[in-house]
Specification:
Radius of gyration: 18 Å
Shape: globular
CATH class: Alpha Beta
Distance between the termini: 47 Å
Oligomer: single chain
Number of strands: 9
Number of helices: 11
Number of domains: 1
CATH architecture: Alpha-Beta Complex
Strand content: 5-15%
Strand order of the largest sheet: 1-2-3-4-6-9
C-alpha cells in the first residue's frame, strides 16, 4: 500500500506503523510525509484500532528530513517551497490528532524531524544506546515545523538548551528533557512497548479519545497560527545562502563555511 511505510494490526487492536526507509536511516522525504498523513487519516477511522505504535526499520529511528528532498527546494518557486514545507506540519498534525494513544518505539538514533515524530507521541520508549539531536542549525536550516510540537513537549527553557546548538545527547538526557518516557535495554524494548500499550486495552476507547482531545483543548494543542508560522519559516530558510551552503557541504562531505576548525 505504501512505499515508505509498513502497517500491521494484531488481534488485540494494537497497530504498528513502521518507517521503512532503513537504507536512508528513515529520513523523511516528501513521499514519506504524505504517506504518514494518509496512514494517520486511515487509522483515525479504524474503530478496531485501540493503540498505535510508531516504529522504524533498521539501525536508526529517523534521521530527520531527507536532505535530497530539501535540496530540491532550492530550485523551486516560493509556492512550491511552502507546499513542501507544509508536508512536515501535515504529517505531524495528523499523528498528533490521532484519537488513539500513540506510542513511540525508538530502537535507534533520532535527529531533527525524528524528534518531531517523538514529540507527537503520547509516550516514547527508547533504547539506552540511542543518540538524539536537533542538528538542523549545523546544516544551515532550522527546526521550524517540528518546533511547536517539540516546545509543547519540552517547554521553552529546555528547548533553548538543545534546539539551537545542534549538539547530540543520550537517552537519559532525552528523558530529562521530556522527549522520552522510558529508557530500556535493547532486549527489553518489545516488552516495554507492550507494557505501555496494554493498559489502554482495559479502557473505554471513546473515553480515551475524548480525554486526548480534551488535553489539546485545554491548551496543550498546537494551533493553526503556530503551524502557519512554522511552514513559512522553513520555506524562507530554504531560500537562504546558509541553507544551500550547509546542505551542499553535507553532500560534498566538506565543512560548511561557518564551522570553526
Amino acid at each position: 500500500m505504501y512505499q515508505t511505510l509498513s502497517f500491521t494490526c494484531d488481534a488485540k487492536g494494537i497497530a504498528t506503523l513502521t518507517l521503512a526507509r532503513p537504507d536512508k536511516h528513515n529520513a523523511m522525504s516528501g513521499e514519506m510525509l504524505e504517506e504518514i498523513a494518509d496512514a494517520a487519516s486511515l487509522l483515525k477511522g479504524r474503530s478496531d484500532v485501540r493503540v498505535v505504535v510508531l516504529a522504524a526499520e533498521g539501525r536508526s529511528f529517523c534521521a530527520g528530513g531527507d536532505l535530497a528532498w530539501m535540496r530540491a527546494q532550492f530550485e523551486a518557486d516560493d509556492e512550491t517551497r511552502r507546499r513542501e514545507s507544509a508536508k512536515v506540519a501535515g504529517a505531524l498534525l495528523a499523528l498528533d490528532h490521532l484519537p488513539q494513544p500513540l506510542i513511540g518505539k525508538v530502537q535507534g538514533n533520532a535527529f531533527g524531524g525524528g524528534l518531531g515524530l517523538m514529540a507527537v507521541c503520547d509516550a516514547v520508549v527508547a533504547v539506552e544506546t540511542a543518540v538524539f539531536g536537533f542538528t538542523e542549525t549545523r546544516l544551515g536550516v532550522i527546526p521550524a515545523n517540528i518546533g511547536p510540537f517539540v516546545v509543547r513537549r519540552m517547554g521553552p527553557g529546555p528547548a533553548r538548551r538543545v534546539l539551537m546548538s545542534a549538539r547530540t545527547f543520550d537517552a537519559v538526557e532525552a528523558q530529562s528533557l521530556g522527549l522520552v518516557s522510558r529508557v530500556v535495554a535493547r532486549d527489553a524494548l518489545e516488552a516495554a512497548v507492550e507494557g505501555e500499550a496494554e493498559p489502554y486495552l482495559s479502557c473505554a476507547p471513546g473515553a480515551v479519545a475524548e480525554t486526548k482531545a480534551l488535553l489539546r483543548d485545554l491548551g496543550y494543542g498546537v494551533d493553526q497560527a503556530q503551524v502557519d508560522l512554522a511552514i513559512e519559516a522553513l520555506a524562507h530558510r530554504w531560500r537562504t545562502q546558509e541553507a544551500q551552503d550547509g546542505i551542499a557541504a553535507f553532500f560534498a562531505k566538506t565543512p560548511p563555511p561557518w564551522k570553526q576548525t
